[in-house]
Structure formats: C-alpha cells, structure tokens
C-alpha cells in the first residue's frame, strides 16, 4: 500500500463518519471552523493577565506559531495537493472552503504550536489545550477539508517548533533577564 492509498483510505474512514454519525456533525463543524476564535480569545486573555509567565508563554507561542507557519509554507512548496473534496468523489464536505494546497493544515499548525507551548508552561491547562488541538485536527478531516497527512504534518510542525522555541528562547539571556527583571512591575503599573 502506498502512502497515497493509506492517506485516502484513512481519510475515507474518518470522513465517512460524517454520514454514519450525522448527529456529531454540528460539533465537528464548530471545532473545525470556530474553535480558532476561541483559541484567539484565550491568547488575548493570557496577554492581559497579571502573570509575567503567561505573557512570556504567549510570546513563545506566537514565535513558535510563526516559525511553524513558515516551515509549513516551505513544506507546501515541496509537496502539494488539493483538498479531498476537490480530488475525491463522494466526500462529505461540511464546511465551505476554497480549493488550494491543503498540505499541511494551517489549523493543525496553529493549534499545536500554541497548545504545545501552553503545555510546556502550564501542564494541566496545556493538556486540555492539546486534547482540544487533537479534536480540531480530527474535525478537519471529518468535515472533508484535509487529508490525515495534512493534519499530521501540521501537528508535527507545531509541536517541534514549540519545543525548539521553548528550549532556545529559555536559554536566551534576553528572556532570562526579562523574566527575572522588574519589567513585570513596570508593565503591570502601565
């Protein structure tokens, strides 16, 4: 079995659930389309907390997300394919989506880079965020806009970029100085 066959068959097994378990479709559509807004609200809320650690976490998350997106665009130049609904017959397409290169999934990149960073800083909340990221990635296949390889690659890029950014930025003297300095008090009093 080739990778393309495996990818297509795995896609079919997940996407066909939309026909078999149609009661779950509204939840999957919500996860696939609107959970990104909830993640954005979470990021903004963390920026306005009085915790210097939360602010630092968001800086790390934004940097890792940016790096993962750049890597995703480069990966998309090396390998590309259109969305499953544009290439395969009888796809349960539950959301509107333009036809372009679907490799890798931007949603998976964004969710996993941000949620992995949250997990690195705050284990309990981060674990919940990672579960949510997995649900979003799965929902993107369920609703017919991504192949499993798209979300798997986006997941990998998001996780790896977060780990690398976390390790390298914490090693940075600038970050250490910021975390240990009186900047926290100056920012909170601003």
Automatic annotation (TrEMBL):
Transmembrane segments: 27-49, 56-82, 102-121, 128-145, 151-170
Short name of one Pfam family: PAP2
GO molecular function: undecaprenyl-diphosphatase activity
Alphabetic keyword roster: Membrane, Transmembrane, Transmembrane helix
InterPro entries for the chain: PAP2/HPO, PAP2/HPO_sf, UPP_Pase
Protein's recorded name: Undecaprenyl-diphosphatase
Positions of the Phosphatidic acid phosphatase type 2/haloperoxidase domain: 58-166
The organism of origin for this protein: Fictibacillus marinisediminis
GO cellular component annotations of the record: plasma membrane
Upper taxonomic lineage: Bacteria, Bacillati, Bacillota, Bacilli, Bacillales
Taxonomy, superkingdom: Bacteria
């Amino acid at each position: 079995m080739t990778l393309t066959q495996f990818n297509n068959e795995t896609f079919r097994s997940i996407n066909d659930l939309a026909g078999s378990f149609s009661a779950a479709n509204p939840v999957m559509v919500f996860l696939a389309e609107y959970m990104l807004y909830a993640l954005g609200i979470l990021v903004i809320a963390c920026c306005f907390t009085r915790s210097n650690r939360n602010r630092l976490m968001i800086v790390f998350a934004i940097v890792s997300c940016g790096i993962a997106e750049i890597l995703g665009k480069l990966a998309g130049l090396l390998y590309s394919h259109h969305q499953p609904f544009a290439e395969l017959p009888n796809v349960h397409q539950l959301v509107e989506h333009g036809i372009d290169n679907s490799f890798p999934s931007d949603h998976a990149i964004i969710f996993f880079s941000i949620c992995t960073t949250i997990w690195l800083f705050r284990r309990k909340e981060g674990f919940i965020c990672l579960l949510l990221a997995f649900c979003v990635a799965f929902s993107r296949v369920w609703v017919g806009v991504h192949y499993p390889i798209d979300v798997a690659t986006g997941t990998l890029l998001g996780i790896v970029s977060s780990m690398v950014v976390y390790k390298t930025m914490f090693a940075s003297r600038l970050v250490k100085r910021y975390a240990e300095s009186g900047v926290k008090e100056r920012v909170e009093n601003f």
